[in-house]
Amino acid sequence: MRVVVQPVTSQNPVCDKGWFPYGGSCYKFYNNKWATRKGANDECFSHDASLLRIENQAQLNWIKNTTKQYPSWGYLTGLNDNPVVKANRLGTGVWKWGSYEYADMSLINWAQAPTNDGQAKCASVNIQGKLSDLKCGMRQGYICKYPSTNGCALGWLPGTTACYWFSNATDGSQLKNWTDSKAICEAKAPGAKLMVIADQNDVNFLMNELPYLAKTTRTHYIGLVSKTVGQWTWYTGDAFNPSLVKWQKEPDNVAGMENCGILRYNGQFSDRDCNLYSNFICYKPQYNSNPTDNLGCGNWIRGGHLCYGFMSNGMKRNWADARSYCQSLGADLVKMDSIDKTTWLNQQLQDPANDKAFWTGFNDQQNEGSYVWADGTPVNTSLINWNSEPNNYMGNEDCALILSTGQYNDVSCYTQAAAICELDNYSPCPGGWVSNQGNCYLFTPYSNTSKLYNQPEAGTYCSTFAPNSQTIGKLLSVDSQSEKTFIKAQVKTMNDNVNGWYTSLNDQASEGYWQFGNKPLLDNTLVDWNGEPSTAPGDNCGLVAYAGLLHVRNCNITIPFICERYATGVSAGNGIKGSLAGTIILLVLAFISKY
Description:
Layout: E1 20-22, E2 25-35, H1 37-46, E3 50-51, H2 57-67, E4 75-80, E5 96-97, E6 101-102, E7 122-125, E8 131-134, E9 140-147, E10 157-158, E11 162-166, H3 178-188, E12 193-194, H4 200-213, E13 219-228, E14 231-234, E15 260-264, E16 269-272, E17 279-285, E18 301-303, E19 306-310, H5 319-328, E20 332-333, H6 339-349, E21 357-363, E22 399-403, E23 408-411, E24 418-424, E25 434-436, E26 439-441, H7 455-462, E27 474-475, H8 481-491, E28 501-506, E29 515-516, E30 519-520, E31 539-544, E32 550-554, E33 563-566
Parallel strand pairs: 4-9, 13-17, 21-24
Antiparallel strand pairs: 1-2, 2-9, 3-9, 4-5, 4-7, 5-6, 7-8, 10-11, 11-17, 12-17, 13-14, 13-15, 15-16, 18-19, 19-24, 20-24, 21-22, 22-23, 25-26, 26-33, 27-33, 28-29, 28-31, 29-30, 31-32
């Protein structure tokens, strides 16, 4: 993993040799090494980076100037209209960065209007800053980008452009007045301060996070102050944008003593006496973005602390089987328990790649007319928009589908439909993963042949597991005897997998020279060969069988695999696994959470 060895700011980014610094990130321009979209993706991932995303006009202007030093017909970017559901082969006409981030089309200047013919599903940028759509199999130059910072410190939540720290709402000793709240925040880290709403990214983050705190607290101090009656500003002197502050009936300055701002759990603001005690939110700008598409949710979509998996096509089941499937992944059927989640989900349902109806946990199977979520949680009926329902047709409609319109329809629980699974992925090891010595382990399923990958595809998939820039997933590498022992014990419990699991072990660079990923195998005792390694042509990739023994097979066969990732909050600097020399790689076994 990359290690940044000195403090980084947006003005002083640290980049590897050959990478250009700009805006707190590092860029590399490949003009002499052409690749397909998949090849470019793989190359970027090998550097813990991702294909270029265009985020603002200033960045685009910088890219235009820099590409003049490295002329190419074009550079592949992360922009595409590939369908999320692979069975739908044609492009959707809805352009995104990676798999799930909708593109700001005001920044996209097409060289000519995209064909949107369903075939040209990827986009490249030329030295004029104009984009063209092309087939993803065409070879071009490409631009990789990775964040030049180490992300958020332990205990801080990462957002798009900042890190956030919430005082413990269950600890009464952390209730403070405004002045003490400010002092605590500023002492936490260089550049930290009491919460400032700098842009829409901050608003979006808070609207996702605050509903999770509503059960224990309703107000948090922020850095909003009124030094002159009726004139509100940020105490730091940051620019105050009133459109980002939505007041809840206030400010009313009761008794002329309410000069400090608080943020309520519903995302609205109030004024209050600065001497009263409240929880508070600290804020620290960061100038990086996550190097992966989905922020630690694999092929699922991240929203706040949660990951969402949209089952589709051949994955249709009745309600009970759909719930069992979600639970097998450490998840459950989705429940709509906040207005923010409801709004977010309704936006996702409009994706043309999704089905028209999905199972949720919404049902009244135990008591007719008394709806609850699958886990027994009561339903907030103000969040439910029925589609002229429920009518309990023929007395047999006890489960509810959510439609692409955001409306609900009650149907028989035996109806075959797609479903939406929901998983909390903010814990150190998310549901379904196995924890061991500060690391997370999660096995890919082997009972469904459609979920098997070859080794390059497996490595790319593992790279998508990344809650932050320090916990990016990798295909399995073994670096200690204790890990080898742990792995053998795990795989022996799954002896019905006759194919084994891919690891990152290979000798593709030089026949007979075995390495984990691109790191040499320094200790041969870490690998228990089963009469191997083979010298048969094409047998260049290592897999571990249920007995814990290593076999060599052709890298193009499709089998289950094992990914690795640090547990959330654990990094190479914490002495769990990894070193500054980079010769040790973390181990995490990953379960495919692909529908």
